[in-house]
């Protein structure tokens, strides 16, 4: 009868509570690094791996490339949030993020960053020895990027260059070589990322001006953002054509390039100077479709 009238929870209650707390923190860390945005870079890492060998790489290589990408991107986003925490707190759009709102502490975010770095390094050591020498380059890029908005409106190009390392790194991880085609593919991805990051800067243009931060939008205005994005995305398509001409690709690759061209055109039709109501659709949805669609066509080409 000792349990009758007791105010203590059943033995399973504490376990459920702990499980719920773990799930809550997992969700917070996932939001911290915007895990869903991995769709932008990961498919292009796979594209680099596929084109490097003109076939589907081994399951071992694909697995560790995936782990490396997830670790690297998680590290990049966590560092970005840590370095920008005070800036985010002063911006109404970002004040609710996990660090400014107190949902996660800086110590927790630093621990997550170190864990992400460890995951990245473990994965790197499972791939070609060349990438064991190259890993500090993207990590340095991750650290430098958040500071650039304090000094220059060219930060978008730096972000593009860092993300453009995804297919280059995957190419090196598979073959141990970096031919010019790998670098051109990386440049295409860099300009694609930089182009839609110009659009993203429009969300914060007014706040950035108030805080003395730099972006393409604060330097050239809304019209300049659209001109720059069109130029970058036009070069993206041109560089994908150059990659195809430099490799032994088939029809599916060229259909993929055509699909990228059409989707980028559609993206630029969704928004225009003075009307950015559909900017979310242009930025998130369309660019996610672009990366996945191009990967699918390249995969079909090598099968």
Overall mean pLDDT stands at 88
The total count of strands amounts to 0
The end-to-end span amounts to 69 Å
SSE pattern: HHHHHHHHHHHHH
> Which ranges are low-confidence, i.e. pLDDT below 50, for 5 or more consecutive residues?
1-11
Number of helical regions: 13
Please report which band the strand proportion falls in: under 5%, 5-15%, 15-25%, 25-35%, 35-45% or over 45%: under 5%
Helical content band: over 70%
Q: Quickly give the structural class.
A: mainly alpha
Give a quick rundown of the structure.
This protein is mostly helical. It has 13 helices and no strands.
Please describe the topology of this protein.
Blueprint: H1 11-32, H2 38-53, H3 59-83, H4 85-89, H5 106-124, H6 129-134, H7 136-148, H8 155-175, H9 180-201, H10 205-211, H11 216-246, H12 251-270, H13 279-302
Structure description:
By secondary structure, the protein is mostly helical. Helices cover 76% and strands 0% of the residues. The chain has 13 helices and no strands. It has helices at 11-32, 38-53, 59-83, 85-89, 106-124, 129-134, 136-148, 155-175, 180-201, 205-211, 216-246, 251-270, 279-302. Helix 11 (216-246) packs antiparallel against helix 12 (251-270). The N and C termini lie far apart (69 Å). Residues 1-11 have low confidence and may be disordered.
């Amino acid at each position: 009868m000792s349990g009758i009238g007791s105010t203590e929870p059943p033995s399973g209650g504490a376990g459920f509570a702990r499980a719920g707390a773990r799930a809550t923190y997992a969700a917070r860390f996932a939001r911290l690094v915007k895990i869903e945005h991995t769709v932008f870079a990961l498919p292009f890492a796979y594209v680099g791996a596929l084109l490097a060998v003109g076939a589907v790489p081994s399951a071992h290589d694909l697995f560790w490339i995936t782990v490396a990408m997830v670790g690297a991107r998680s590290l990049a986003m966590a560092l970005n949030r840590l370095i920008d925490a005070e800036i985010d707190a002063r911006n109404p759009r970002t004040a609710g993020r996990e660090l400014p709102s107190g949902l996660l502490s800086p110590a927790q975010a630093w621990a997550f960053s170190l864990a992400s770095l460890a995951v990245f390094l473990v994965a790197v050591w499972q791939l070609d020895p060349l990438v064991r020498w190259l890993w500090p380059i993207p990590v340095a890029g991750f650290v430098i990027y958040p500071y650039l908005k304090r000094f220059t409106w060219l930060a978008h190009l730096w972000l593009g260059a860092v993300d453009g390392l995804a297919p280059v790194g995957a190419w090196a991880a598979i073959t141990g070589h970096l031919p010019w085609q790998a670098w051109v593919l990386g440049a295409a991805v860099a300009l694609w990322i930089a182009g839609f990051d110009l659009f993203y800067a429009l969300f914060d243009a007014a706040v950035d001006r108030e805080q003395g931060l730099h972006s393409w939008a604060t330097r050239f205005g809304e019209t300049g953002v659209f001109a720059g994005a069109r130029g970058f995305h036009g070069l993206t398509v041109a560089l994908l054509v150059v990659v195809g001409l430099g490799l032994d690709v088939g029809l599916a690759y060229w259909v993929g390039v055509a699909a990228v061209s059409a989707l980028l055109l559609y993206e630029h039709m969704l928004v225009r100077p003075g009307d950015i109501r559909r900017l979310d659709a242009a930025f998130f949805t369309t660019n996610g479709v672009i990366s996945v669609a191009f990967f699918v066509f390249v995969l079909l080409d090598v099968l």
